Amino acid sequence: MKKLFLLILIVLLPASVFAESDNTVRVSYLGPEGTYTEEAAKFWFQDGETFIPKSTVSDAIKDVMTGSADFAVIPQENTLGGAVVNYVDAFIQSEDMYVVGEVVLPINQTLMGVPGATLEDIKIVCSHAQGLTQSAQWRKENIPDAAAEEMSSTAAAASYVAEKQDKSIAAVAAPGAAELYGLEVLAENVQITDTNKTRFYILSDDIQEDEDLTRAVFVADCEGSQIDDLIIMIHEAGLEMVTLHDRPEGSSLGRYYYLIEVEDDEGISDSQINILKDLEMIRFTGRFNSVEGVSKADIW
């Protein structure tokens, strides 16, 4: 009798009662926990969403392509380190992936080690390539004899230091990683400048159609000699160039993939996009808005 009652109750209840978990947005990002990419993801989306840390950007993108996630969040460019080229490459190679948003975060890098460590103890500093670049000048001035060791992410570096429990090894990572991994802050703001920022792309396999969005991204596949003509066409379409990153195309010298970001403060129209899409060399990869956030690093 009880089973019959439960079956009737399930049939009569509205579908929305059971849809809550299905409606939760799944967001893959470059992990592990404690990365600035996680901060960017949580700034763009709601805290109630499901966040899935991945070991590589390619894995995060693959989650969206296979339906395991609705969105992926990846670093794109840093003030000091420039384009994060391997992540740009991963996006360029993902032909059915579109940029649907962008988050800009201030980046405050912190040097951290195991409890009891001092700057005099440090012989190795590990971090993501960007963290090492951003802290290079500070390290040269303060711990010039310490070797640099590249890792997959700043949080992975913090996790490694916590695992090793060696006073001679330190990590450059986001301030919150110290608390997350039980480390001690040895020095704050070790980046070269207080204007250090990173841009993060929000990726989806669905394209946005709204014409009030102010940014757009294209991927061009062409000879270097053709880029001048392409820039002229961008301006003739009423668009302003935001960034231009070139990556080797791989088939011949002098041929490149160009990741081109453009803007129009009035909103980018379908007609503007079509002017460029009609070119054989161009692939349209998304229309979006860019927002600037306050990193948790400014609060910790």
Characterization of this structure:
Strand 3 (71-78) and strand 4 (82-83) form a beta hairpin. The protein is built from eleven helices and 16 strands. The model is unreliable at 1-21 (pLDDT under 50). It is 30% helix and 32% strand.
Summarize this structure briefly.
This protein is α/β, with parallel strands linked by helices.
Tally of individual helices: 11
- Helix fraction by DSSP (H/I, runs of at least 4): 25-40%
Using the coordinates shown, work out and report the CATH topology of the largest domain. Answer: D-Maltodextrin-Binding Protein, domain 2
Shape: globular
Broad CATH class of the largest domain? Alpha Beta
Q: What is the ordering of alpha helices and beta strands?
A: HHEHEHEEHEEEHHEHEHEEEHEEHEE
* DSSP E strands, number: 16
* CATH superfamily placement of the largest domain: Periplasmic binding protein-like II
CATH architecture of the largest domain: 3-Layer(aba) Sandwich
Mean pLDDT: 85
Unreliable spans = 1-21
Distance between the termini: 56 Å
* Rg from alpha-carbon coordinates: 22 Å
Secondary-structure class: alpha/beta
Major β-sheet profile: 7 strands, mixed
